[in-house]
Amino acid sequence: MKHILIIISVLTVLGSFSCKKFLETSSPSSLSPETVFNSPSMAKAAVMGLYGKMTDTYIYGQKLSVNWQGVSDIECNRAFSETGYNSTSSDAGAGNFYGSQYNSTTRWSGLYDFAEISTAAVDGIRQSPILESEAAKMKPLLGEALVMRALAYFNLVRYWGAVPFKREASKSDLSNVYLGRTDIDTIYHYIVKDLQEAVDLLPWLGTNAEYNSAERVTKGFAMGLLARVSLFAGGWSLRDAKLFPDSKAEHNKNIPETPDYFVGRPQNWKDYYQIAADICAKMIASPDNPHKLDPSYVDIWKSVCGQMPNPTNENLFEVAFGMGDNGDIGSLMGYVVSGNTKYGTRGFGGTYVTSTAYYFYSFDKADTRRDATLSWFNYTSDNKEAMGSDPINVPFAKWRIYWTTPGFQALQKTANSRIATGINWILMRYSDVLLMYAEAMNALKGPDVANPNADGVTGRQALEMVRARAFGAGAPEITKYDPDFFKAVVNERAWEFGCESIRKQDLIRWGLAYTKIEEMKKTLCQMFDGTKAVKIFDKTYQPSDFPQTVYYKFKPDGEFIDPESPNYYKELPADPGEPWIAVKWFPQTTMKPETGAKATDRYIIYPIRVLTAATGLYPSYDYSSFLGTLTHGSEIQASLATYQMGNGTIYYRYPYAVYYEDMYESKGAIQSSYGY
Known about the structure:
Elements: H1 9-13, H2 33-36, H3 40-53, H4 57-61, H5 91-95, H6 109-126, H7 135-160, H8 184-201, H9 219-233, E1 237-240, E2 250-251, E3 261-265, H10 269-285, H11 297-305, E4 315-319, E5 333-337, E6 348-351, E7 354-355, H12 357-362, H13 368-373, E8 377-379, E9 385-387, E10 394-395, H14 406-414, E11 425-429, H15 430-444, H16 459-471, H17 485-496, H18 503-510, H19 513-529, E12 534-536, E13 539-541, E14 549-552, E15 581-584, H20 602-611, H21 624-627, H22 633-640, H23 660-665
Antiparallel strand pairs: 1-3, 2-3, 4-11, 5-6, 7-10, 8-9, 12-13, 14-15
Helix pairs in contact: 3-6, 3-7, 6-7, 7-8, 7-9, 8-9, 9-10, 9-15, 10-15, 15-16, 15-17, 16-17, 19-20, 20-22
């Protein structure tokens, strides 16, 4: 496969990429591997090249951070649509679980390049004659390279399932290049081993001047990534029984299967959950741990948009981007700014990843994460905000133009094409460690038992630490959550990590992708219908809890809407008049017109847009019984029957297809799988 490089390819990385705060180096591509790894400074340059590679479009520059988030119960890509949802040649279709070996937008080549050069760096440092004599410099570099390789294969196995895997760099004779797929459990076993080694090699953030930034991999991120990988290793994934007939994996009894494909997990899944619980416990209890929750949830996003380090080191690791050079964080998703404003002729933010009223109303009204995560407001060409009301297009708002640096705003103001924002992508936060600990301990011992390494902290206490930040210390809401603690964790992770490229993969590993997405879809349709009570996560809403009209007013500056003003949860008895502004709310906006109704009206097309979403996950879908419970269900069903739904072959098909050129270049070692 031409995209798998021989070991010399690590040299082409040196200095070829640049990230802010990283040393700029010229490319010594004529040097031998022995020369590179015989010097701490050159070895460091090789590792810096790995960081640069992470900014590629097909890694974190765009795909893993934005385009491949896909549909979950809280996210949708490019908003729900009755067109393009089943495309087999786009990210939009892939986000709805439709795919094809001819879809070039879901290629794995960038990640395999990343895996190969990371492996070359691991091998080069291991074989370096100065590994022990310069251990203080070389061993942390080895830890960084091990984490990079783990990240590469972790994403490959999550997005493509069983993939080719090797632990040594490609040989010049290509004897270890043309490989077939490796069993998922084997890949996870070795990723875990790499990360366990890396944890012991890496320093904590801030230990020395070399590792004083969240843009470098340090011990905390290695520990957090080890926990995350372990939960996936012990979680559910789609298995190819024909390719691996000797698999001893446990079958998921709640997900249908075919003779060739099933959803399974390793029989020793609890061992992996124990690894996750133990490593999180050690991190939580360590007196050397520099990572803490930022007291303010919204300040996490203000600081990252402003390209400032988090003051409490909540961010375990950030993929570093350069303003004007690389990274689309914020420009394709986030608070929406129209063109032709004081910020420039080009817009900002958008709906590559967006959300819905279902997610908005899943939050408690007192949860500070709600308005930090989502915004019904947008900035218009009148240089002031307006309020939207589309229940299937509620933009995420963790990235906002008015939080960005003056330097970026100056670039944006004169731009005639999209400008790389330079906003870092946060790959993991400390709240994730707390919630992973809560999840793992609950699965092993229950929520009220502390891990021996956790200094007395239980899973319940860890979850409530996260909630205390969301509601404020001492708030009664901190202890009010679903009595089923696993469901409480599932809900909490939704509220904490919206639009952070976490939710869809969480649902997959829990075996809940189909269930939770379908709950969201049907509940949205009931919200449009407006005749029955609906349950959203742990909350029940009566039809009267949703207003027909929302009123809002501006702050004294007349530019920005007062976020406390909208009546999201009740109908006002009368129009309050000036200075309040009215906007129609669902279900008023999704009602059938009294006259002149047609199939493109919202009362029909909105349920269709919702119900066709994510329908590539299962072989077929039948909503006739459900639609029979809705006021206009028969009309919706008549129109819905004209739309394709289902992949036609297997259940729970979330993996991407391997691109046909990559199969061809494997010289027959790789074949299509998962029903493609």
